[in-house]
């Protein structure tokens, strides 16, 4: 259904210009469709001049199959520049963009209304109506000239399709889904930086290196978090504010389960002390990221703290997670720049704390006692900041496919669908690395899952173990922790300290932050903890005995003579249909006559699954008495004859 109220927008991502500069087509085809925003309160089409000289839009027009947008006056687009064509003046969050509105500058729109559910957008030449570029989305017509393959996805309100490929293949692969105002960092723009890294883990450290780094702050602290209500850290920030240190905080406004009341009251205390506390929250249509799931801080433009854990006392003291303090000016300045962009108060989704919680009461906090922490080792390393949704998935793919000897990943969540689809994912890349000889191991938390065969992390681990080369185990607490909240990956001599869960949403729609650290010492530091969490290799040897083999009678299937660790679960498939209908180390079953291919599956407490296949033959009852069968019908006659014989013998003896 097409809307009658339309407007347009689209952000010119100038950082993307180098992508296209080397791939301009012939003179008539130098202008491309670059961004399409069809839904919401306004629409937009952005064009990009990929050529080396300016072009005149008067020579082109837009066509959606039902209407057109024509340029009756000269409108020039300079080389490597963008222009956005809008049906109305954009909303306030687009005021910083150069937009040409329908009805101005000689722009004439006639019935050009893009459908919410899907449509086609064509850029044509005026002289011969030749199609220069085509975009098809949703339920649009994929047979439209200039397009190949399936349509791009439906584009919901507030989102847009953005060209992401340096090559125009006329397919959906040239495009990605985005939102106005997101950063558009590339792998190349996020450089490698020299730094000194202090690694630590939760809950062993209780975050002590983080406290030590914050205690040293003298000028500025910037913090971006998903959840933040750690009482002692808040007390430390209060102390820093008293010393004149600037404190700026950006928090997610719609976390799963809602914002904790303690967080609101702690942030109110900091706000009243002079901290800048901002919340990123959608307004019903516009929000740049599904979730701001970061867990980092920048100190004095010199130091970055990154963790897998939210800044909460329970997380620090009870979760398995990884963290690092990274000292390096260039790296810190880069991350600071990202924080400033995310926290821009001019953005439509950024709110001051008091705008959302005007009546919140602060919590009175005790004065912070400095810890003066020492004893943690530091190492020289090369570090690279990683951003979602900008390029994290693309970079992880590159790293995994280049792995030579190990990939160790400890995750709270891995997307179940990745285990059975052919789509490219961290699991398929891990399997590819294993085929080349890498040792690939996956640990997945099951703290809140039931081992009931449902779609959960137990099942995900089971299916991962069926993938070529991947060893996978579940983890349900350790010697000194409960929930495994980690998102860490070790690839050869590099390690990712990350907020990114292994899901499509985390990689493609959330604002997430990770640091890739290249250092053999640092990678081995985390690998030692990983292998401790991995545990010893279980020893399972399966053996089955079967008692009984008669149709209609109960048969006993017994695996209790096998070798297996405590907690191993047993499942039986006795009819070869692939379904495990019975469970237990010893079961009884009644089977019909014939040959049966059976399977026993044993799963240990780490999620490793072992399979034992065997066959049994079940006989009919008559086959069990084969000697008497031919004569059984004469039994009554035989009984009579024997009775007569006995009587005769008795009578004769009596007379004799």
Q: What does this molecule look like?
A:
The protein is of the alpha+beta class and 656 residues long. It is built from 13 helices and 35 strands. The strands form six sheets. The protein has a 15-stranded mixed β-sheet, with helices on both faces. Strands 8-7-2-1-12-13 form a six-stranded mixed β-sheet, with no helix packed on it. A hairpin with a 5-residue loop joins strand 10 (118-125) and strand 11. The longest helix has 21 residues, at 635-655.
Q: Secondary-structure blueprint of this entry?
A:
Elements: H1 17-21, E1 31-37, E2 44-49, E3 55-56, E4 60-63, E5 68-71, E6 76-77, E7 82-86, E8 99-101, E9 107-110, E10 118-125, E11 131-138, E12 159-163, E13 175-179, E14 193-202, H2 208-215, E15 220-225, H3 231-242, E16 246-252, H4 261-273, E17 276-280, E18 295-299, E19 303-307, H5 313-318, E20 321-327, H6 329-342, E21 350-352, H7 353-356, E22 379-388, H8 392-401, E23 406-411, H9 426-435, E24 439-445, H10 457-465, E25 470-475, E26 487-491, E27 494-498, H11 504-508, E28 512-518, H12 520-534, E29 545-547, E30 555-558, E31 569-573, E32 582-583, E33 586-589, E34 594-603, E35 609-618, H13 635-655
Parallel strand pairs: 7-8, 15-16, 16-17, 23-24, 24-25
Antiparallel strand pairs: 1-2, 1-12, 2-7, 3-6, 4-5, 4-10, 5-9, 10-11, 12-13, 14-20, 14-22, 15-18, 17-21, 18-19, 19-20, 22-28, 23-26, 26-27, 27-28, 29-30, 30-33, 31-32, 31-34, 34-35
Helix pairs in contact: 3-4, 8-9
